[in-house]
Prior knowledge:
Order of helices and strands: EEEEEHE
Distance between the termini: 31 Å
Shape: elongated
Number of strands: 6
Oligomer: single chain
Strand content: 15-25%
Radius of gyration: 17 Å
Largest sheet: 3 strands, antiparallel
Bound molecules: zinc ion
Helix content: 25-40%
Strand order of the largest sheet: 1-2-6
Number of domains: 1
Amino acid sequence: MEDDDDDLCININGVSHTILCGICKEKISLIGEADVETRQAGCAPCGNVSDVQEVARIATEYAKDEAQLMLNRMARDTVRQRKFMTFSGQTEHNETYRFIITDLQF
Ligand SMILES: [Zn+2]
């Protein structure tokens, strides 16, 4: 499998998202030899490196969490315009993800 584009991506709802380092928000890359069995990927400057499967798992978890937060933020903004309603859901991540994605949309 030859690929000129080194960016690591995961597919969410049919859309490819580039995985970023959760610490510095830079693109991550594959690390080490291409033909080893368990490839590693991550952000070398941050020392934020994991197995590729683990990277994908964390980024997917982030995406799920982020999707819920986006819905909550929308609900909060709707509620803000109505005087007698309050919204108490979570709108920010309460844990730090080592790997994240951007451009998540519905
Ligand atoms: Zn980093």
